[in-house]
Amino acid sequence: MNAKKIISQLLSSAGITVNGNSPWDIQVHNDHFYTQALAAGSLGLGESYMGNWWDCQRLDEFFSRVLRSELDKKARRSLAVKGEVLLSRLFNPQSPSKAYRNGAAHYDLGNDLFQGMLDKRMVYTCAFWGNAHTLDEAQEQKLDLTCRKLKLQPGMHVLDIGCGWGSFAKFAAERYQVKVTGITISKEQAELAMQLCKGLPVNIQLMDYRALTGRYDAISSLGMFEHVGLKNYDIYMQTVHNCLSDDGLFLLHTIGSNTSTDYIDPWINKYIFPHSLLPSIRQIGKAIEGLFVMEHWENFSVDYDKTLTAWFENFSANWNKLKARYDDTFYRMWKYYLLSCAGSFRARKNQLWQLVLSKKGIEGGYRFA
Question: Which of 56, 147, 243, 341 is an active site residue?
């Protein structure tokens, strides 16, 4: 059976027709797409899209259907991808010497890109929509929810691990009158965060989490744990434990996987988040065992579908301002990234968790208003 027939049959089992009329159907422009997708799986699918070999009116819905039908489990992984997985098992691709390079590959692409894509506060993590009607409102709700879960009080000193452009630090300092120390491994993020938080009791540092010292009343980590890596989960949690006051709370906000693995989607690894990894419940549980009491665990993954869709809409609307610095291949790559991830959350393939942890357990139990 030739590659075209195999791919067509696989997609048909997910309700997708090659050159069909539905918004989630794909339109193939180059027949090399079939052999590329069959030989290299996810990597071949993404690279052939970047090369304009195929299109789809609704990439998000295409991926939702592909993942709901578990076609990803049937896709073949190339020898190159298998080699990358083997190396990640033998070595530590998120070691201190490599962490800055991994971070720069994504977060130092250009602040103009992220300013054109994100909300006004530049929050690059899942929003909490609730009753919100706009991305700005949804991100503000998420920041406020985080502060309430941490039970922030005026005068507290809060550590923000992976502070991004300072959105949480600025919000917490302004609304809850706390002092915040934020760390990031992105030079571009750190520079802009310092500007945005100027005049507030916020200290932004270019630092790897493994270099942290001192004690803090509360610790937040929003959308950073995905870059820690399986080999470093223990040292990450031990570092947080060492830095958290005995009666303090730690909030971990992370994308999560339904299964335990030690590798990421190969296309995402190569083009978007090098050497990232989505943790499973079991992997997180193992890392916190003996260090923390799990006080609260919430899943609002469906909100990430809406967040990613809103990010793409902003990115697309601002493309004319961005295209002088980013070419058409980048546009297709970024569109594929945002909408394939939206489809993944819609299919419930990925989760978004917020955990609240304490060191000794909150006397009388944990509640937040």
Answer: 341
Residue partners of 129: CB distance under 8 A and separation at least 6: 138, 141, 303, 306, 307
Q: How many CB atoms lie within 10 A of CB 74?
A: 11
pLDDT tens column, 274-327: 999 999 999 999 999 999 999 999 999 999 999 999 999 999 999 999 999 999
> Do 194 and 181 meet the contact criterion of CB atoms below 8 Å apart?
no
Task: Look at the block and give the residue holding tokens 């139990």.
Answer: 365
Partners of 100 in beta bridges: none
**Among 186, 254, 177, which residue's Cα sits nearest to residue 217?**
177
d(CA 278, CA 280): 7
Known catalytic residue: 147?
no
DSSP class of residue 77 equals P
Structure tokens, 196: 């945005």
CB 24 within 8 A of CB 343: no
Write the CA distances from 157 to 152, 154, 173, 203, 366, integer angstroms.
9, 9, 10, 11, 20
Residues 153-171: tens digit of each pLDDT: 999 999 999 999 999 999 9
Predicted confidence (pLDDT) at residue 256 exceeds the cutoff of 80? yes
SS3 assignment, position 65: helix
Query: What is the Cα–Cα distance from 48 to 93, expressed in whole angstroms?
Result: 27
Q: Is 212 helix (H, G, I), strand (E, B) or coil?
A: coil
- Tokens describing residue 315: 């990115």
CA quadruple 226, 230, 232, 238: dihedral, nearest 10: 90
